[in-house]
Amino acid sequence: MPSPTIGPVKVTRIYLTRHGQTVTNKEGRFCGHAETRLTPLGEEQARALGRRLTAEKFDACYTSGLGRAVETAALIAGERRLRSFADPDLRELHYGEWELEKESAIRRRSPEQFALMRAEDPAWRPPGGETVGEVRARTAAAFERIVAAEPGHRVLVVSHGTAINCLLSALLGMPESHVFRIDVANCGLTEIEVRSGRVSFVRINETAHLAALR
Length: 214
Known about the structure:
6-stranded mixed beta sheet; 214 residues; Rossmann fold; alpha/beta
């Protein structure tokens, strides 16, 4: 009896990055769902990552829909015309009443909640905002949707610092108390391979392309 024909395995590659430096990053403010703009350095970071990825033939681009992520994606893509999609589940953690407040002010005004955040306590929730558990759930759902929609494709995904921390910790099976154990630099590159449903990491937070900008 002849052996059944087995087709090639479709490998999806996700090129995940955080947006470039923003005004609120530079000022030390919490910025989740609020809008902010890229600094000149942030624009250069995005262009540098675009040069790093010049040889990659992307099939699509997904962003959170927030301006800083959309602009970063456009600078990375350069002249390439990509199918582009906005997924709000890729947005940053919503900081509620902390939005656009300086960290120094929150430390003084809400010392208990600030201490919970620094301790990576899963119970931490900024007033009116989200927990890291909630962000892990929605970013993981977004990741699954992207992989399902782009079998065998190369996909650029631009999201946000804590959102990426949450996604990576979920994919790696890390507990919610260890969400912030991975550095996520502005325009740092994480490459993820998905083969037959199995997730593998090729690189995490690669920043060599940013060295000349430091």
